[in-house]
Amino acid sequence: MRQSLIMGNWKMNGSLESTKSLCSAIMEGLNADDTGIAVCAPYVYLSALKDMTTNSALSVGAQNVADQTSGAYTGEISASMLKEMACTYALVGHSERRSYYGDTDDSVADRFCEAQKEGIVPVLCIGETLAEREANETFNVVNRQLDAVIEKAGIDALENSVIAYEPVWAIGTGVTASDEQAQEVHKAIRERIAAKNTAIADKIQILYGGSMKPGNAKGLLAMADIDGGLIGGASLDAASFLEIYRSI
Ligand code: PGA
Fold this sequence. Notes:
By secondary structure, the protein is an alpha/beta fold. The protein contains 11 helices and 8 strands. The protein has a single domain, classed as TIM Barrel (Alpha-Beta Barrel), CATH 3.20.20.70. The chain has an 8-stranded parallel barrel with strand order 1-2-3-4-5-6-7-8, surrounded by 6 helices. Helix 10 (214-221) links the parallel strand 7 and strand 8 (228-231). Helix 1 runs parallel beside helix 11, helix 7 runs parallel beside helix 8 and helix 10 (214-221) packs parallel to helix 11 (238-246). The longest helix is centred in the middle third of the chain and has 16 residues, at 138-153. It is globular, with a radius of gyration of 17 Å.
């Protein structure tokens, strides 16, 4: 039985005050023995969240990490800096990074490796656009994105990582993949990993992301290969986020 994981992606939203209130409201809804719940916050709020979440059930992650270790990379944040902020996770390759900020399969693989060097669990985001789905390219795209990391990091590196399948057409659009559409891709991702290492394939958490909300979470999370969710919009509301967490 795989452990489930519900992860919020707050993106570039909120203020210091609203971030602290959201974090408090989520923590108030958790019991000391709850596990498998995390939020990915803007870099500048990680320090505040570190102070608030120490010894709590809520884990914290970053939304990206640099593809270099240190040096003259103005504006970037390294994995060791995130480690100092007590980050458990870092998203790598979110589709918004890939489409607006030029993250490539190769740089995403570097980010994945940088996170792991510091003991931060990379959450590798993969997924196809609507045009790619309509051209029957879904499996080719997710395989290419996954293989880029396996080639650079090695299959064993997936042991300490999470995968998030996020069809780009479902992100922030209100259109969710159907339970079966999502399961089909999750299963294919797990099978591709299993072809190289069955133990890792059995263990790795594969999250679904893309307009997951309280109303559709239960169905998605009940699918055999969907181990949790990466939640954007609905994670900005503590009650909705907790409802999704409780529906697992
Ligand atoms: P959404 O975002 O839940 O708002 O669709 C998901 C994500 O981008 O991770």
